[in-house]
Amino acid sequence: MRRVRYESAKGPLFLEVAPVPEPGPGELLVRCEAVGVTLPVVRKVSESAEPIPLGGELAGEVAAVGDGVTRFRAGDRVTGLCFGHGYADFALLHEAMASPVPDEASSVEAVALVRSGLVALGALEAARLERGEAVMVTAAASGVGHLAVQLARIRGAARVVGAVSDPAKADFVRALGADEVIAYGDDRWGEPVDCVLDAVGGELLTPAIAALAPGGRLVAYSSGGGTIQAYDLLVGARSVIGFQMARIARGQPELYELWRQELWRLFGDGLVRPAVHAEFALEDAAKAHEAIESRANLGKVVLRP
């Protein structure tokens, strides 16, 4: 089979021929039809001292199952998060991280919806959003952000603000249901909001905290790091909440499954529309990473093995 790999930090991505892996206990061997490209993986390629397996969301058909697998069999269509080599023709997916793909959804739609949608939904839950509140979503045109904008509206937000790196993304974000769109470099970010869902981190944390109304909550789910001054929280009794999807998946599988079912229901009802920026061939994985690094994407970036 073909697999994408690299040999050193910031080194070029290249295709290699590798043996098809054998599923171990509790694992599914999936014939990959779509693989989602995520910012954390792109960052690790640039920042990790040692090469890492290129994993992430994937969707496809189960080719074989390992010992102890009870929920799936060969021929089933699944999506889930791969922690090993996912940029490949075949990949291993642990049964606990897999969910079925309904007949009405394509593999590309599954990759664009499920993992990113779970993060968006989980961030909203962590923010304790109440009906009638105002929400700001940073990276609002990203794979997670564009779903968070839609889900915030569905969950009763009275005002949804999208924050983007480029004003050219404004029309896309407004079409998702945002009432306002601001650019990171704007001098003023409009009226305060009750919640900020932040996927950017870094230097953006300071203005994001400043955008909160008294008692407001910022949910940080970015891999971008950053520093927050305690005084900025004390003024107005603001708070910051860290959110990590893997912790929910491992520690609260019932909640994880409940959120997955909610996403598929909303998709089936036509209330949530996953957007795909572009689809790249496996050999063009470097171009897919460039689309993420340049912040050019409007929605999800997908590899098609």
Describe what this molecule looks like in 3D.
The protein is an alpha/beta fold. It has 2 domains: 2-101 and 275-304, Medium-chain alcohol dehydrogenases, catalytic domain (Quinone Oxidoreductase, Chain A, domain 1); 116-245, Rossmann fold. Helices cover 29% and strands 29% of the residues. It has 9 helices and 15 strands. The protein has helices spanning 39-47, 107-127, 145-154, 170-175, 205-210, 230-234, 245-251, 253-268, 285-293; strands at residues 2-5, 14-17, 27-36, 56-65, 77-82, 90-94, 98-100, 134-138, 159-164, 180-183, 193-198, 212-220, 239-242, 276-281, 300-304. The strands form 3 sheets. Strands 3, 4, 5, 6, 7, 14 and 15 form a 7-stranded mixed sheet that branches. A 6-stranded parallel sheet has the order 10-9-8-11-12-13. A two-stranded antiparallel sheet has the order 1-2. It is globular, with a radius of gyration of 19 Å. The mean pLDDT is 93.
